[in-house]
Write a structure and sequence with these properties.
alpha/beta; Leucine Aminopeptidase, subunit E, domain 1; Aminopeptidase; nine-stranded mixed sheet; six-stranded mixed sheet; elongated; binds ligand BES; binds manganese (II) ion; binds zinc ion
Length: 495
């Protein structure tokens, strides 16, 4: 999709659809002018309560040549005083989804004029790009009915911004959404395609495009190094486990990096502790943390962020097999701590604990991991927020701030020592699964045992990586969660 900026009067601009934002409790000049041109049609819609500007509502009308625009798409912005970037992003997402549904191939938008001039343009571009996503690679029927949205023109630069600044904001949104799209594509791909090797190839290709350093540790190296927890999870599969490492240097050769670690289970059958069949297909999404790390590197490099970043993705397929690890097995992790594997379905923390320990050799200023780690997180927070835990107040605060700004919600859970009681094993240092109670937290507590004194935060994205029903900026399916949050976090610390 193309996004352009044009200084043109919306009332004189010919387009298949003119998009305007409407408040519930205020009318602006453009609204009134459109209403007048359409002989009071908008006032009639409001009087009939057919469209009153509430959030998450849109209304398309034909102008019948009363305006140069063929259609007018009214987009609800809610109460004027409540308008923020996230609301604008969602309005833009709703608009593009309505245009796509009506098979209108291009539009001219004025949504950005409603918000904060410093940020609104970026938010509208972001919402539009995010809301227009679709994954259709495996649909072979009715190709002629496939719909491709061509482009959006943003009418009038926002007050106080020159063309160059406005153009840069579009570029920023495009680069960020490229990262989100990469993450969504990876998560959408089925498990027979997005294997550990596929993730490694994707990382290599990304490194080539952006001149990043890339190293893939293969099975023999993992064994030599002693990453036995990762190996234990991967050895029941015909697809060998790997450790993917990507390095982006946006802040010179010497600065200590931020390290991002993403869970890359390409399919989670549960292993010998096998999962029930119903819904198991969703476990192709168990590499969403790894996908978010790749997407974040894509976006960070595309933006040329002035930070040093290392992305680490432990990747494996969790399968039952004659060679698979079994409940009761004990492994010595890279850190030297021994782990009794009491449940092979608690595999995420096993691959992560070795990756988190490995990551410390980069002496990170901060380390953030993302993982579809626990069903318990979904029980606790549903699909509205990712679980956030960690050992550093400031890092947690910064992530909360980034979350508020970008609209990817997080909610903090405690990691008190007492939670660790159930993770103690009779025969080893730790066991990988405790009781069901507080399962999201006990998983976080387990990871904490492997980060030593490094500033660290953990995001459990089990409930947010995949959307069963469409949202304004997330068509049904993969959300790409984590990319925008991390980019927002990195942009804030870059300054
Ligand atoms: N990948 C799952 C967690 C998950 C569940 C992600 C639902 C997305 C949606 C993880 O590996 C898992 O199986 N966790 C177990 C841990 C338990 C055995 C301690 C769980 O949550 O049941
Ligand atoms: Mn599992
Ligand atoms: Zn899993």
């Amino acid at each position: 999709m193309k996004i352009e900026l044009l200084s043109s009067n919306p009332l004189k601009h010919a387009t298949p659809a003119l998009v305007i934002g409407c408040f519930e409790d205020a009318r602006d000049e453009l609204y009134n002018a459109c209403d007048a041109a359409l002989a009071g049609c908008l006032a009639r819609l409001a009087a009939n309560k057919e469209f009153s500007g509430k959030v998450n509502t849109v209304r398309m009308i034909h102008t019948l040549a009363k305006l140069p625009a063929e259609r007018l798409l009214l987009v609800g912005l809610g109460k004027k005083a409540e308008l923020d970037d996230e609301r604008l992003r969602q309005a833009a997402g709703n608009a593009i989804q309505a245009l796509r549904a009506a098979r209108v191939a291009s539009s001219a938008s004025t949504l950005h004029l409603a918000g904060n001039p410093r940020t609104a343009l970026e938010a509208v571009c972001e919402g539009t790009l995010l809301g227009s996503y679709s994954f259709e690679q495996y649909k072979t029927k009715n190709m002629e009915e496939r719909f491709n949205f061509e482009g959006m023109t943003l009418l009038l630069p926002p007050k106080g911004l020159n063309r160059k600044e406005a153009g840069a904001m579009i570029g920023t949104a495009v680069a960020i959404c490229r990262g989100v799209t990469l993450a969504r594509d990876l998560v959408s791909q089925p498990g027979n395609v997005a294997t550990t090797g596929y993730l490694a190839e994707t990382a290599r290709e990304l490194a080539l495009r952006h001149k990043l350093a890339c190293r893939i540790l293969e099975m023999d190296e993992l064994e030599q190094l002693g990453m036995n927890a990762l190996v234990a999870v991967g050895k029941g599969s015909a697809e060998p486990p790997r450790l993917i490492v990507l390095e982006y240097r946006g802040a010179g050769d010497t600065g200590r990096p931020v390290v991002l670690v993403g869970k890359g289970i390409t399919f989670d059958s549960g292993g010998i502790s096998i999962k029930p069949g119903a819904g198991m297909e969703e476990m192709k999404t168990d590499m969403a943390g790894g996908a978010a790390v790749l997407g974040t590197l894509e976006a960070a490099a595309g933006l040329g962020l002035g930070v040093n970043l290392v992305g680490i993705i432990p990747t494996a397929e969790n399968m039952p097999d004659g060679k698979a690890c079994k409940p009761g097995d004990v492994v010595t992790s890279l850190s030297g701590q021994t782990i009794e594997i009491t449940n092979t379905d608690a595999e995420g923390r096993l691959i992560l604990c070795d990756a988190l320990h490995y990551a410390q050799k980069y002496r990170p200023t901060a380390m953030i991991d993302l993982a579809t780690l626990t069903g318990a997180c979904v029980v606790a927070l549903g699909h509205e927020a990712s679980g956030l835990m960690g050992n550093d107040k400031r890092l947690i605060e910064r992530l909360k701030q980034a979350a508020t700004r970008c609209g990817e919600r997080v909610w903090e859970l405690p990691l008190w020592d007492e939670y660790g009681e159930v993770m103690k094993s009779d025969i080893a240092d730790l066991k990988n699964a405790g009781s069901r109670d507080g399962g999201c937290i006990t998983a976080g507590w387990f990871l904490k045992q492997f980060v030593a004194k490094t500033r660290w935060a953990h995001l459990d994205i089990a409930g947010t990586a995949w959307c069963d029903k469409a949202r304004p900026c997330i068509p049904k399916g993969a959300s790409g969660v984590g990319v925008r949050l991390l980019i927002q976090f990195l942009r804030a610390i870059e300054k």
